[in-house]
Description:
The protein has helices at residues 30-35, 46-75, 80-94, 99-116, 125-131, 164-173, 184-192, 235-238, 248-263, 298-307, 320-330, 359-364, 373-385; strands at residues 119-121, 135-138, 150-151, 202-207, 215-221, 227-233, 267-274, 282-291, 311-315, 336-338, 367-369, 390-391, 421-423.
Amino acid sequence: MYKGDSCKMGSTVVRGEVEATVEATGANTFFGRTAALLVGGDEVSNLQKLLIRIMVILVVLSMTLCLIAFGYLLGRGETLRDALSFTVVLLVASIPIAIEIVCTTTLALGSHELSKDGAIVSRLAAIEDMAGMSILCSDKTGTLTLNKMAIQEETPIYLEGETQYSLLRYAAMASKWTEPPRDALDTLVHGCADMKSLENIKQLDYMPFDPMVKRTEGTVKLPTGETFKVSKGAPHIIMHLVDQTANAAIIAQCDKDVETLGERGIRSLAVAKTKGSADGPWEMVGLLTFLDPPRPDTRDTIERANLYGVEVKMITGDHLLIAKETARQLGMGTNIENAALLPKLEENGKAPANLMDHFKYIEATSGFAQVFPEHKFLIVEALRRGGYKVCLPFPPSPPIPLGCVKVLLACCLSAPSCLSTTQTHPPIPPSLPLLPLDGHDR
């Protein structure tokens, strides 16, 4: 970081020290402004609207019939007092005062049944809302996927005699393998490499990750006395370590492999080592490929939701190519767009006046990538205004406004953070059978 740079909350200082000034706290921060969207999000549920409609109809009908009865009694010669007393009793008896108690009791029984499957309902109306869902807007990481990077079998090798096994060992040597992992990549490598085979290897020097260098480097000494350097990092950074002229063919092949993998949304980590000694020339060893794989049951869940008439849209902050590859694997369609054409919040934190101009665009897509929390708010709000009932399962992440989300579905949750329905154990099926209980909003 440089003087004047903005450091976001939750950032970790890996190396060095600095004096900083706090610029904003609470609702004035980036995520705080998103959280402020929760304010004033109370909305009458469909069940409440239905009950109010029933009550109004019954009250009007009862009053009409009571007036007819009142006139009939007066016409038969009854006294005004007797006729009025009978009419009042009839009116009180005809109004269904206990309808709310009966409905609450019925929903409470349904909530009890859901609790047997691990879904805790904190808002009873959520049960009926969930039954009428028409679009499920789902996050990707941790919801559709495992939120856990996994090494892929595809491992491009550029140095003769090397394998994925040896490549993982070299990658581990480019980290502090005797200490707890410092980041997600180290965690991934340490979990897959043969760490016991490194017990007799001595690390002479280590260079941690730096935003300027964008790689890590370790100098190691083998039991045989051989000393060399190992580095891992972004492919385009590692490729610049090797001799560009002598390794032109390898660099061209590595570029092609990285591009091919990128088109499929697969990330890659390059590994290189010096030849002969720590001061020897660098040579490219290979690429480790990794991906956050979908949950085993996600595709089946999406197919079942589609059978019930529920469209599933992906809304993620991840890269567009990765989102497209995940959507392809899950059969969600590849019409995934980035956030470039999405509307933005006004200065006062409200949805823009022309929000519905983007409705057809939002409706036609299979999902969006590289979005911020405010984009999620506007996507759900546009769909809601367009007549859809929108549900949104999500893991613990920046909040989504409750005014737009009629119910937060228990299925697909990776953590018990749902505001209306919370899943208390891993996914899924219990809530999906509830989907066909009601039709769509439109």
